[in-house]
Design goal:
The structure holds 2 protein chains of 2 kinds. By secondary structure, chain A is mainly α. Chain A is built from 13 helices and 4 strands. Chain A has a domain of 195 residues. Chain A has a two-stranded antiparallel sheet. In chain A, α1 runs antiparallel to α13, α3 runs antiparallel to α4 and α8 crosses α10. Chain B is an alpha/beta fold. In chain B, β4 and β5 form a beta hairpin. The chains are: A mainly alpha, B alpha/beta.
Chain lengths: 327, 509
C-alpha cells in the first residue's frame, strides 16, 4: 500500500465506531420502535452517566498507555463506606458524596504510589488493588446488602431545569476532563507521555507527575461514578461495581482511545462509547433478550473495537517508520 | 573573540572500553565547529556529555569560562545548549506548536491554562525562521520526514540557545530542504550563534564550518581552521588503524589453491522500499563471509531486517539456495535455513529473564520433540545445550538455569549466537555481533563466524567497525543512504576507498 492508501484506510478505521453506532441505533430501532422514543433515549443517557464518568477517568489512564483495573472495586469501596456513613453514622447525603469522591482519590493515590513511584506495571498493580478493594468492601459490609435511605436515592431522580441530575454530573465531569486534556499544559503532556515516555522524559516532562495525575483523576472519577450508580441503584450488594473496569475500558476504546497510548479524547469519544454500550444493553432489554446473552454481545463489540485499535496502531507504526532517504 | 566552550581532558569509558581519550578542544563564541569521525569515534559521546545525557569519567568542561557539568538535559538546555538529534524526538500525535512548547506553554498568568493565541504566534515565528510552511496546529504525523526535521530544528531554536549542536541534520532532508537549511545556518551564524555541526558529508562540513575537529577511536587527531583541511585529508585522518585488535585467519586465504566452488546461497535482486533502501542487489555464496559496511543511518540494519522478514519491502526478490522466499515471516526464513542475529541483543535477541539453557534451545525446540507424543526429549535437549555451550565457549561458571541477564555482554552474545548455530543455518546474518563486548569474547566470536563459513554456510556480517570487516571478510559491500555503492574483494581492501564510498557526497548546490 502506498502511504496515501494507508491514510485512507486509517480514515475508514477512525470512522468505524460511528458506523457501528449508527447500525446499533438503526438495528434496535427497526426491531423495537419504542427504542427510539425520546423518553427511552433520555433513559439511555441517564443509565450511561455512571459509566461515562468512570470511563472518563479510565481515558486519562489509557492515554498514558496504562490501565486501571481497580475502578470497579473503587466504586464498591466508595459505595460500601458511604452506605455505612449514611446508615450507621447518619451523615447527610451531600457530605457522603464528598467523602466518596475523596475516597476514590485516595485509592487513586495508592495506584499512583505503586505505579508512578514504585514503578510497578499498571496491569498488575491495579489488579492487586482491585482485589484489595473488593476484599475491604466485603469485610466492611460483611457481604450483606445495604439499602440506602431515600434522602440519598432521591439524588438520582432529581432534575435541574428538566435535566436529570446524573446527566448533569456526567456532563460537568466530561466538560472539565475535556478542557483539562485539551487546554492545560499537564493535559497535553499526558498525550506526550503516552506516545513515548522516554522521549517525554528527555524533553523535560515530569513523567512521574503525569502518571500520578492520571491515576488520581481516575480514582476520583471512579468514586464519583460509584456515587452516581449507588444513588441510581439504591443498594450496595457485594457485586456492586463488579466488571465495571471492563465496561469503562470498552467505552474509551469504542470511542477511539488507543490501548497503545497517546490517542483518544473524552469528548466526543469516550462519552459516545459509554452511550453506545449502554444503548446496546437497553436495546437488548427492549427486545426481551435473554440476559445471559448481554455479556456475549457486549464482549463481541468490544473485541471489534480492540481489533480496530490494533489495526490502527499497526498502520501508524508503518506510517511512522524511520526514513533514511528522501524518496 | 572569547571561548564559549572548552573541553579539558574529557575521558569516558563504557564498561572498561575507552570511548573518549583526553579530549581538549575550544569553541570560540560565534563560530561553527565541524566535527567528523568514523562510527564509534566518539562524536556522539562527546556531545552527549555536553548535553547532559552522559557524564565524563575525567576532565572538565568550561562554559562561558565557568566549570560546567550538566546533571541532565534540562540543565544543559537552561545553560543555553540545544541539541538537534539525528533520531527525532518528536511526538507525532501532538501539533507542531505543542511539540515546540511542551514544557513551557504560554499561560494566562499563573493559571495552568494554555494561551492558544500566544502559542500560535510564537510558533509561527520559529516556523518562519526555519522556512517550514505549515500552520502551528498541524499534527506532526502529517509532516514528511524532512519537515519533521525542520520542526526539531525550530524547537531547538525556540529555546534561544547560545550553542546549537546539529547531529547529521540533513540525512532525511530533500535537496531543496537541505539548501534551505544551509541558508538558515548562515543566517544563524550571521547573528552570532555558536554551532557544532556533525556530518558524514565532508564537503558540507568544510563549507559550513570555521574550524574542523577530527576524532578517531575516541581521540582528537586533528583540529584547526578549515583552510587546513580538504576532503581527502579528512578521510586519511579518520581512517587510521586501531592496533589492539587481532583477527583469526581463514585457511582458504593462505592457500594458493583456488577458492572452493562458487555456489550462490542468498540472492537479492532489486530490493526496494521507498524511504529506506533502493535497488539493492547482491549474492552471498557458500563458505563466504560477506561484509556490509555503512555509516550510521545508511540502512544496513533495515536491509537485514527486510531479508529476515521483519520489515516489508515494496519491490525485489530474495532467493535462498535457488528457491524464492515467499511470505514475510521469520519462521519461513528459518525453514529455509536463514538465521539472523539482531543488533540489539537485550531488546530483540535474548529473553533476558529466561535461563541460559532455554535461550539456547529456543530456536531448535521442535527438533527435540519426541516423534508422536510431541513431548520434549529433555536428555537430547540437554546434550545439545551442553555441546553448543562448549562450541561457543560459554563461561563454565554460569549454570544452565541462571537467567541470561546475569551473563556479561560477551557471554550473552555467545548465547544468542549459540542459539542460532544449533539450528545449523546455511545463511547467517549477523548485525553488529561484537557490539559492546570485550576483546577476548570478540576474538572467540570471530572464530565462530569463520568456523560456520568453513562448514559451508554463507555469512552476511554487518558492522560499524571497518577494521573488523577488513579483518574477517572475503568481500565487503559498502552501503550509503540505502544503496549499495561499492564492492571490494580480499586482498584488495582499501580503508580510504571504503570510507570515501560510505561518506555522503553532496548533490545539492
Amino acid at each position: 500500500m502506498s502511504p496515501e492508501q494507508q491514510r485512507l484506510v486509517m480514515r475508514a478505521l477512525d470512522a468505524a465506531p460511528l458506523v457501528l453506532f449508527a447500525l446499533v441505533l438503526a438495528g434496535f430501532g427497526a426491531l423495537s420502535p419504542s427504542f427510539l422514543a425520546p423518553a427511552n433515549l433520555v433513559n439511555v443517557l441517564v443509565q450511561s452517566s455512571a459509566i461515562a464518568i468512570v470511563a472518563t477517568g479510565m481515558t486519562f489512564v489509557l492515554l498514558t498507555a496504562g490501565v486501571d483495573l481497580s475502578v470497579g472495586s473503587i466504586m464498591f469501596v466508595a459505595a460500601a463506606v458511604s452506605g455505612k456513613l449514611l446508615l450507621a453514622q447518619g451523615w447527610p447525603p451531600s457530605l457522603v458524596v464528598a467523602g466518596i469522591i475523596a475516597l476514590g482519590g485516595l485509592c487513586g493515590l495508592l495506584n499512583g504510589l505503586l505505579i508512578a513511584r514504585l514503578g510497578l506495571i499498571a496491569f498488575i498493580a491495579t489488579l492487586g488493588t482491585q482485589y484489595v478493594g473488593r476484599g475491604f468492601g466485603m469485610w466492611l459490609t460483611e457481604t450483606r446488602a445495604m439499602n440506602l435511605p431515600e434522602a440519598f436515592t432521591q439524588l438520582a431522580s432529581n432534575r435541574l431545569l428538566g435535566v436529570p441530575l446524573p446527566v448533569i454530573v456526567a456532563a460537568l465531569v466530561v466538560a472539565a476532563a475535556h478542557a483539562f486534556l485539551m487546554r492545560t499544559p499537564r493535559g497535553r503532556q499526558i498525550y506526550a507521555v503516552g506516545q513515548d515516555a522516554a522521549a517525554a522524559r528527555k524533553a523535560g516532562v515530569n513523567v512521574r507527575g503525569v502518571l500520578w495525575t492520571v491515576y488520581v483523576l481516575c480514582g476520583l472519577c471512579a468514586g464519583l461514578g460509584g456515587a452516581v450508580a449507588l444513588a441510581q441503584i439504591g443498594s450496595v450488594a457485594p457485586t456492586f461495581g463488579a466488571n465495571k473496569e471492563f465496561a469503562a475500558i470498552a467505552a474509551a476504546v469504542l470511542g477511539g482511545t488507543s490501548l497503545f497510548g497517546g490517542r483518544g479524547r473524552v469528548w466526543p469519544g469516550t462519552v459516545f462509547g459509554a452511550v453506545l454500550i449502554q444503548g446496546i444493553e437497553n436495546g437488548l432489554n427492549h427486545l426481551n433478550a435473554d440476559p445471559y446473552l448481554y455479556p456475549l454481545i457486549t464482549a463481541g463489540i468490544i473485541f471489534v473495537a480492540v481489533l480496530l485499535d490494533s489495526a490502527r496502531g499497526r498502520l501508524r507504526r508503518t506510517l511512522g517508520r524511520r526514513r533514511i532517504r528522501p524518496d | 573573540m572569547s571561548a564559549l566552550l572548552q573541553f579539558e581532558g574529557i575521558t569516558k569509558r563504557f564498561g572498561g572500553v575507552p570511548v573518549l581519550r583526553d579530549i581538549t578542544l575550544t569553541v570560540e563564541a560565534g563560530t561553527t565547529l565541524g566535527l567528523v569521525g568514523e562510527n564509534g569515534a566518539g562524536k556522539s559521546t562527546l556531545m552527549n556529555i555536553l548535553a547532559g545525557n552522559l557524564r565524563s569519567d575525567a576532565g572538565r568542561i568550561f562554559w562561558d569560562g565557568r566549570p560546567f557539568a550538566p546533571a541532565g538535559p534540562a540543565e544543559a538546555a537552561a545553560a543555553g545548549i540545544a541539541f538537534v538529534h539525528q533520531e527525532l524526538n518528536l511526538f507525532p500525535n501532538l501539533t507542531i506548536a505543542e511539540n515546540l512548547f511542551l514544557t513551557r506553554f504560554p499561560r494566562w498568568g499563573r493559571l495552568p491554562w494554555i494561551r492558544r493565541d500566544a502559542l500560535g504566534t510564537q510558533t509561527v515565528r520559529w516556523l518562519r525562521e526555519v522556512g517550514l510552511e505549515a500552520t502551528p496546529e498541524t499534527p506532526v504525523e502529517r509532516l514528511s520526514a524532512g519537515e519533521r526535521q525542520l520542526v526539531e530544528i525550530a524547537r531547538a531554536l525556540s529555546l534561544e540557545p547560545r550553542l546549537i549542536i546539529f547531529d547529521e541534520p540533513t540525512t532525511s532532508l530533500s535537496d531543496r530542504e537541505t539548501r534551505q537549511f544551509f541558508e538558515l545556518m548562515s543566517r544563524l551564524r550571521a547573528r552570532g550563534l555558536t554551532m557544532i555541526y556533525i556530518s558524514h558529508t565532508l564537503d558540507d562540513v568544510l563549507r559550513l564550518s570555521d574550524r574542523v575537529a577530527v576524532l578517531r577511536d575516541g581521540a582528537l587527531v586533528a583540529h584547526g581552521p578549515r583552510a587546513d583541511f580538504d576532503a581527502a585529508r579528512l578521510v586519511t585522518l579518520m581512517v587510521g588503524r586501531s592496533l589492539n585488535q587481532l583477527y583469526p585467519t581463514r585457511a582458504c586465504w593462505e592457500q594458493s589453491v583456488p577458492a572452493p566452488a562458487v555456489r550462490p546461497l542468498l540472492e537479492v535482486h532489486g530490493l526496494t522500499q521507498p524511504g529506506v533502501v533502493r535497488n539493492v542487489s547482491f549474492t552471498l555464496h557458500a563458505s563466504e563471509v560477506l561484509g556490509l559496511f555503512g555509516l550510521m543511518g545508511a540502512g544496513r540494519s533495515e536491509l537485514a531486517r527486510m531479508l529476515f522478514g521483519l520489515e516489508p519491502f515494496a519491490r525485489g526478490a530474495v532467493q535462498v539456495a535457488g528457491q524464492p522466499l515467499q511470505g514475510n515471516s521469520p519462521r519461513r526464513r528459518l525453514q529455509h535455513g536463514v538465521a539472523f542475529l539482531t543488533e540489539d541483543r537485550r531488546e530483540d535477541g535474548l529473553a533476558l529473564e529466561a535461563s541460559i539453557a532455554d535461550n539456547l534451545a529456543l530456536v531448535t525446540l521442535r527438533r527435540h520433540a519426541r516423534r508422536g507424543s510431541g513431548w520434549l526429549n529433555r536428555s537430547a535437549l540437554a546434550e545439545a545445550v551442553r555441546s553448543i555451550r562448549a562450541a561457543v565457549r560459554l563461561t563454565p561458571t554460569a549454570r544452565d538455569t541462571a537467567p541470561a541477564r546475569t551473563l556479561s555482554g560477551g557471554n550473552q552474545q555467545k548465547v544468542v549466537l549459540g542459539k542460532w548455530l544449533l539450528a545449523e543455518p546455511q545463511v547467517l546474518i549477523l548485525d553488529e555481533p561484537t557490539r559492546g563486548i570485550d576483546v577476548g569474547a570478540k576474538f572467540e566470536i570471530y572464530q565462530l563466524i569463520h568456523q560456520r563459513a568453513d562448514a559451508g554456510a554463507g555469512v552476511l556480517l554487518i558492522s560499524s567497525e571497518l577494521e573488523e570487516l577488513i579483518g574477517l571478510c572475503d568481500r565487503i559491500l559498502v552501503m550509503r543512504r540505502g544503496e549499495l555503492v561499492d564492492e571490494l574483494r580480499r586482498p584488495d581492501f582499501d580503508r580510504e576507498r571504503i570510507l570515501r564510498a560510505a561518506l555522503h557526497e553532496r548533490t545539492a548546490a
